[in-house]
């Protein structure tokens, strides 16, 4: 099968495995989502959700984050990796939102990427989940899965992976595919001990086939994703 047929096969299998894939960062508005994604860099969604459970009770608006000393905000997010740098970026971001966007998170990708601490991946997550704009955010799971399934080459950059996915996946499926690739990478095709023996995509995965050869250790443990209401 050609590249698009192969992609269709992958999308159909992912749909069967994770029909309810969704953003697992808890949030109730675009502002909270932006803060949560900013905090998630080099940190698990689970840890971010534990921190934002109290953070979002204390801070409701950009103004709230600027009313406290930087050191207090740092202590509020100290369980997050790189918390000092992230706290500084949050306050800088909030100042820009107030001065330039009347306290609201902008909906355009190019505006979002100009905010401190907001890169291309974060902007893609925000525009797709908060504003319904089709986008594919390439995180560590999406990158790993795309390369294992030969959608992208091993030495492709994150941007190259994103471009290849955008070319092969129908635009109306970009956002859902992003979520399903994350679920597949987080709960099945993990960095360590992927679920190769029970993988429906083993037939097109060179790395998986190599792992399944006699003599190759294939210790596997599949973790089920949490449901949307489990936090």
UniProtKB/TrEMBL annotation:
Name by which UniProt lists this protein = Endonuclease III
Which Gene Ontology biological process is one annotated for this entry?
base-excision repair, AP site formation
**Per UniProt, what is one GO molecular function of this protein?**
class I DNA-(apurinic or apyrimidinic site) endonuclease activity
Listed A to Z, the keywords are: 4Fe-4S, DNA damage, DNA repair, DNA-binding, Endonuclease, Glycosidase, Hydrolase, Iron, Iron-sulfur, Lyase, Metal-binding, Nuclease
Q: Which residues bind [4Fe-4S] cluster?
A: 189, 196, 199, 205
The reaction(s) catalysed by this protein are: 2'-deoxyribonucleotide-(2'-deoxyribose 5'-phosphate)-2'-deoxyribonucleotide-DNA = a 3'-end 2'-deoxyribonucleotide-(2,3-dehydro-2,3-deoxyribose 5'-phosphate)-DNA + a 5'-end 5'-phospho-2'-deoxyribonucleoside-DNA + H(+)
Q: Does the keyword Metal-binding apply?
A: yes
What PROSITE patterns does the record tag this protein with?
Answer: ENDONUCLEASE_III_1, ENDONUCLEASE_III_2
What's this chain's function? DNA repair enzyme that has both DNA N-glycosylase activity and AP-lyase activity. The DNA N-glycosylase activity releases various damaged pyrimidines from DNA by cleaving the N-glycosidic bond, leaving an AP (apurinic/apyrimidinic) site. The AP-lyase activity cleaves the phosphodiester bond 3' to the AP site by a beta-elimination, leaving a 3'-terminal unsaturated sugar and a product with a terminal 5'-phosphate.
Under the heading InterPro entries, the entry gives: DNA_glycosylase (IPR011257), Endonuclease-III-like_CS2 (IPR004036), Endonuclease3_FeS-loop_motif (IPR003651), Endouclease-III_FeS-bd_BS (IPR004035), HhH-GPD_domain (IPR003265), HhH_base_excis_C (IPR023170), HhH_motif (IPR000445), Nth (IPR005759)
Identify the residues that the record assigns to the HhH-GPD domain, covering every copy.
Answer: 39-187
Co-factor requirement: [4Fe-4S] cluster
On whether NAD is a keyword of this UniProt record, the answer is no
């Amino acid at each position: 099968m050609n590249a698009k047929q192969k992609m269709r096969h992958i999308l159909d299998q992912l749909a069967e495995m994770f029909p309810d894939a969704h953003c697992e960062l808890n949030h109730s508005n675009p502002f909270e989502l932006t803060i949560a994604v900013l905090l998630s860099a080099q940190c698990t969604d689970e840890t971010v959700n534990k921190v934002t459970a109290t953070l979002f009770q204390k801070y409701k608006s950009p103004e709230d984050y600027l009313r406290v000393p930087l050191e207090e905000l740092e202590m509020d997010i100290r369980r997050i990796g790189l918390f000092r740098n992230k706290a500084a970026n949050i306050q800088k971001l909030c100042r820009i939102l107030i001065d330039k966007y009347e306290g609201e998170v902008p909906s355009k990708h190019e505006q979002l990427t100009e905010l401190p601490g907001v890169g291309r991946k974060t902007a893609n997550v925000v525009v797709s989940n908060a504003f319904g704009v089709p986008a594919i955010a390439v995180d560590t799971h999406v990158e790993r899965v795309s390369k294992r399934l030969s959608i992208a080459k091993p030495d492709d950059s994150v941007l190259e992976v994103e471009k290849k996915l955008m070319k092969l996946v129908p635009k109306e499926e970009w956002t859902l595919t992003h979520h399903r690739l994350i679920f597949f990478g987080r709960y099945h095709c993990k960095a360590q001990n992927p679920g190769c023996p029970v993988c429906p995509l083993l037939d097109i995965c060179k790395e998986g086939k190599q792992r399944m050869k006699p003599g190759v250790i294939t210790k596997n443990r599949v973790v089920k994703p949490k449901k949307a209401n489990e936090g």
